TrEMBL record:
Protein name per UniProt: RING-type domain-containing protein
GO cellular component annotations of the record: nucleus
UniProt organism field: Coemansia spiralis
Entry-linked PROSITE patterns: ZF_RING_2 (PS50089)
Classification of source organism: Eukaryota, Fungi, Fungi incertae sedis, Zoopagomycota, Kickxellomycotina
Family annotation (Pfam families): zf-RING_2 (PF13639)
């Protein structure tokens, strides 16, 4: 074959190889971009799923804690009427009040001579009509939050 016939073939081979290389580079680029997008999308879904599972677990624990708190509160959160009636009561005397007199921590009315009060074991006292409804739903002092029944039993055990 003559060199003149080989010459036209060479540019077509170069063109073919150029197109092949360009097409290969394009395909590789597309595959890489699609792969990156897939991985990012998968990571986002995985992260969202993990966050959702964490929220669900938090809500389960919170629900369990609330149920335990409610159950324990229902078992021992108030005094019976017999326990309330058994608390020491007294009538305030003018000498007891001193100069300022003080006020009931529940109704905020000033104490007056002759007021009927209930003494709690923690040494706080309140109008009987004010503290009885409180103690019927709660077994703790409205001020110091100490258990009324446990304090009373402890005080009985310490006295001779």
């Amino acid at each position: 074959m003559s060199p003149s016939t080989n010459m036209p073939d060479e540019p077509s081979n170069k063109t073919f190889y150029g197109l092949f290389a360009g097409l290969t580079a394009f395909i590789v680029t597309v595959v890489v971009v699609v792969s990156i997008m897939f991985v990012k999308r998968h990571n986002v879904r995985t992260r969202e799923r993990l966050e959702l599972e964490q929220r669900i677990e938090f809500l389960r624990r919170h629900r369990e804690n609330m149920l335990v708190a409610i159950e324990s509160g229902l078992k021992h959160s108030h005094l019976s009427m017999d326990q309330i009636k058994g608390l020491p009561r007294r009538e305030l005397a003018k000498e007891t009040l001193g100069g300022t007199g003080g006020a009931c921590g529940i109704c905020l009315a000033d104490y007056c001579a002759g007021d009927q009060v209930i003494d709690l074991p923690c040494k706080h006292f309140f109008h009987g009509l004010c503290v009885e409804p409180w103690l019927s739903i709660n077994d703790k002092c409205p001020f110091c939050n100490q258990h009324v029944v446990e304090q009373r039993e402890t005080a009985k055990g310490e006295s001779p």
